[in-house]
C-alpha cells in the first residue's frame, strides 16, 4: 500500500548555473507543492501504513527550513533546482520516515519532479 500527504511552502530562489540571460538566473519565487509518499503493509491493528500525523510531524522542521526563505542560502541548496530540492528533502526525511517511497515536488502547477531515492 502507498499513501501520501501533501504540503506547500513559499520560497524564493535563483539558478546560478544556467546560462546568462536565462530568466531563472534572476531571483524569483514559487509556491511549491510537495507530496510525500510512504509505502508498506497496512498494520492489522491500526489499519494504517503510517499515521498521517507522523508524516506531518517529521515534515514540520523541514518546512521551517524552507518556507519563506531564499533557498540558495539553505545549506545544501545552493543550486536549488526542483530536482535538487527533492533529493535534499528525501535525505532529510528518510531516517525519521523509513516508509518514505517518493517525494513529488511541483515548482509550478505544470512542472515538477518525482524522486524515489537512490
Describe the structure in your own words.
By secondary structure, this protein is α+β, with helices and mostly antiparallel strands. It has a single domain, classed as Tetrahydropterin Synthase, Chain A, CATH 3.30.479.10. Helix content is 23%, strand content 34%. It is elongated, with a radius of gyration of 15 Å. The mean pLDDT is 97.
Average pLDDT level:
97
Question: What is the domain tally?
Answer: 1
Strand order in the sheet with the most strands: 3-1-2-4-5
CATH structural fold name: Tetrahydropterin Synthase, Chain A
Low-pLDDT runs of 5+ residues are none
Shape: elongated
- Content-based structural category: alpha+beta
CATH class term: Alpha Beta
Q: How is the biggest beta sheet arranged?
A: 5 strands, mixed
CATH homologous superfamily grouping: 6-pyruvoyl tetrahydropterin synthase/QueD
Q: Count every beta strand, where a strand is a DSSP E run of 2 or more residues.
A: 5
Terminal residue distance = 20 Å
Sketch the topology as an H/E string, one letter per element.
EEHEHEE
**What's the assembly state of these chains?**
single chain
Approximately how much beta-strand content do the residues carry? 25-35%
Helix share, percent? 10-25%
Radius of gyration: 15 Å
Amino acid at each position: 500500500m502507498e499513501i501520501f500527504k501533501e504540503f506547500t511552502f513559499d520560497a524564493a530562489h535563483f539558478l546560478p548555473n544556467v546560462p546568462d540571460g536565462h530568466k531563472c538566473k534572476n531571483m524569483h519565487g514559487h509556491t511549491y507543492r510537495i507530496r510525500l509518499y510512504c509505502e508498506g503493509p497496512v498494520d492489522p491493528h491500526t489499519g494504517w501504513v503510517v499515521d498521517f500525523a507522523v508524516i506531518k510531524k517529521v515534515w514540520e522542521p523541514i518546512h521551517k527550513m524552507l518556507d519563506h526563505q531564499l533557498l540558495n542560502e539553505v545549506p545544501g541548496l545552493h543550486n536549488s533546482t526542483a530536482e535538487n530540492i527533492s533529493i535534499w528533502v528525501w535525505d532529510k526525511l528518510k531516517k525519521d520516515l523509513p516508509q518514505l517511497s517518493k517525494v513529488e515536488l511541483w515548482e509550478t502547477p505544470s512542472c515538477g519532479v518525482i524522486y524515489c531515492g537512490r
